[in-house]
Design brief:
Elements lengths: L4 E9 L2 E6 L2 E6 L13 E5 L2 E6 L1 H17 L6
Antiparallel strand pairs: 1-2, 1-4, 2-3, 4-5
């Protein structure tokens, strides 16, 4: 199973963005989105270190509500 995580862009340098969510920061490649404008403050869906889609804030919140509900339902246990 593959999982993509929504993150907020904190800074951009070329095709590399520093993204953050819930206190965790990662460097993310914007190469796959080079035909779409992205800016600091945008939310992107990140898969294996690549931003694969630009999300609006409502989409980002729905993703995190789902992730949080699954985590709560499993009490943080891993399957």
């Amino acid at each position: 199973m593959c999982l993509a995580i929504p993150m907020r862009i904190e800074s951009i340098e070329g095709f590399l963005a520093r993204c953050e969510i819930k206190g965790v920061s990662r460097d993310v490649s914007l190469f796959l989105l080079q035909d779409r404008p992205v800016s600091v403050g945008d939310h992107v869906l990140v898969h294996f270190g690549y931003a694969i889609e630009v999300l609006d804030l409502a989409e980002t919140q729905r993703y995190w509500e789902t992730f949080d509900a699954v985590l709560a339902a499993t009490d943080g246990r891993h399957a």
